[in-house]
Design goal:
Number of strands: 0
Largest sheet: none
Helix content: over 70%
Structural class: mainly alpha
């Protein structure tokens, strides 16, 4: 930037900015007892690995939560429309009954298909078990998000410090 004709004010700002970045990097390195660039690289990679592992755990928990919620919704819809189907069956599959309750019967069939598709051959758990599982998954998701935010901040900080040390080392070499 100096070669582009920036003035003395920019030069002062750049010196102060670089000093602040170096101070922040030095403080980070002292807090984490890092004395070499290789250690800093290892710390940045470890922070990144922790962040990505938590991200994957969070994705899996969210997928499990969505699965459980979808299954619960299908079970509720099935339970609501089951009496209509029982009535249709009791009416010996009467076309008039079918015409009167066509929408509810379609909803019943869709719910039953959703349950079969979601379960994929496994046994359906009781609603109390599903509710408990959903609560546990929601609590796990909440805890994972807290850990995720911390890991994200640590990763950002470690990667930024690494980049700043590298940049500032290059600046020092060229002077």
């Amino acid at each position: 930037r100096m070669a582009q004709g920036k003035g003395p004010a920019y030069e002062r700002w750049a010196k102060v900015y670089n000093l602040k970045q170096m101070a922040a990097a030095l403080q980070f390195m002292r807090e984490h007892q890092i004395s070499e660039y290789d250690q800093l690289t290892t710390e940045a990679e470890a922070a990144s690995t922790r962040f990505h592992a938590l991200t994957e755990q969070l994705r899996q928990t969210e997928a499990d939560l969505a699965y459980t919620s979808e299954l619960m919704g299908a079970v509720v819809q099935y339970a609501k429309t089951r009496p209509v189907f029982d009535g249709y069956k009791a009416a010996l599959y009467n076309k008039k009954y079918l015409a009167e309750h066509e929408e509810a019967l379609a909803s019943y069939r869709a719910a039953k298909a959703a349950i079969n598709e979601t379960l994929d051959g496994t046994k359906l758990s009781k609603m109390d078990v599903l509710k408990k599982e959903r609560r546990e998954l929601a609590e796990r998701k909440k805890k994972l998000y807290a850990q995720y935010r911390i890991a994200q901040q640590e990763k950002r900080e470690a990667v930024a410090v690494k980049a700043n040390v590298k940049t500032l080392a290059l600046i020092a070499v060229y002077r």
